[in-house]
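Lab notebook page, bench 4
Experiment: in silico fold of construct C2
Operator: M.H.
Input chain length: 535 residues
Purpose: comparison with the prior construct
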Amino acid sequence: MLAVLGSMLSVIPVKAQGPIQTLVNIANPGDTINVGPGTYNEHVIIPSTKTGITIKGHNAILDGLGCSLPDGFEIVGTDSVTIRGFTIRHYSEAGIYIHANDTAVPRDRAVGNMIRNNVIEDNCGAGIIIGASDANTVKTNTVQHNGRIGVFIDDGLKNRIRSNTIYNNGWSGIEYHIAPNTEVKGNDVTYNGQYGLCADGYSPNSNIRGNTFSYNGLRGIFIISDSNTMIDNTVNNNAYSGIWMGQGDYNWVEKNYVNWNGQDGIEVTHFLGNPSVSNTFTNNTVNHNAYYGIGVYSANLAGLNLIEKNEVAWNGWSGIGIGASANNTIRWNHVHDNAMIGVFIDYGYYNAIWGNLIDHNGWSGIEYHIAAYTQVVDNTVIYNGVDGLCADGYSGFSYIHVNSFNNNGRNGIYMISGSNTITNNYANNNGLEGIFMWQIGSNLIANNQANSNAEDGIRVEDESFNLIQYNEASYNYEYGIVMGSRYTSIPATNNSIEYNTALYHTVGPDLADSTYYSGLANTWWSNNGILGYGT
């Protein structure tokens, strides 16, 4: 029965097997249509004249007859329509399709529609498509087993995807293009064929918060866009990376749990040669991923990313990695128990590693190659399997200041690099040397403490023009400070060793240029405090 009383709103019942389209056609704006139990083989079109109608299903099924019909519900340039309570299945294009009225001049976008509490499944195309439409809400639906995408937005502003279960769709769980200010909140997005969430094109200012993106076939989150916020998401057990960001700038990634993914936990890279710069990664837990916990790989040495206050642990390769990227800051993280390296830089300039706790990693705590002007300041780097810090290959002009490199398996500091400043560090109780410098030279090594190491306190080999002063190198098993040319024929010349303290060594002298070393020309030993022979 249809009751129409002037401007009063009507409630329209539909009998089982009845035509929903007929009742839509006769409904007034704001009417409610109640659809009773049954299966309806219809393609229901809601035109722009039906603003504000509500269509409620009560154990009602829309079935597209084996994908022979295009859409279950098609909302064409209509505003404020609500569709709720249906099972919608077996349509060729989408279970629900919301789009602009392209015949209107100007184009009439669909705005403010609500899709909620539906089961949208087994469609050959997508579950829900929103095209050229704004401020629509997709809420508390189950969207599963669709052939391509669960929820797809192609051109839309301020659309909201909230509290849905989006499961086992062929491509992406959620995907959007040219969709600024999209909100993705509180969804459970799992077991989709490729991505949990894929956002590309011009889609800035998205708010991606409180979702689960897990067990997807490629990546949990795949985003090529700027100025997005990703907070409080769980991104676990995806086949490739947990969060993948390419050509994305000024994104904020905070308090996410990114664990057990098949490649990197968080991967920041370039796309078509365009780098990702000026992103912030803070307070995330990034553990048990197969490769890096957080990896930043750039192009053209772009960077300016901030990685801070994260826990990065038990990853299969290294905790944090920087490749071909410059001016990044890694600070206040806890990086521990990674299989190889805690923090690794492979080609990059002016990167800063500040105030981190880096411990119990399988190889080095910090390692960098071809990484000039690196700053390593105020870190605690302890109990790593090999070296606390390892720097080699064209990594000069580093500033290594007030760190603790203690209790590492081999060396506290191991450097094959020149023109570095190494000051006010602790390098104690390491398995071989406290500080080991090799082959380059022109380093300042001052005011360090290198005590109680299993071999030498400070060893400088095959190097020239070093200034070694005001260090304490005592209680080491072999030498306090040793200088020579042991491994090559390159003479170690023009070094100054002065005002150091080197006491109480077990088997060797406190300051040494041992007889099997050669070429110690123009090396000055002066004003050192020792127990042993000669100053």
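Observations: Helices lie at 20-26. Confidence is low (pLDDT under 50) at residues 1-8, 514-521, 531-535.
Next step: discuss at group meeting.
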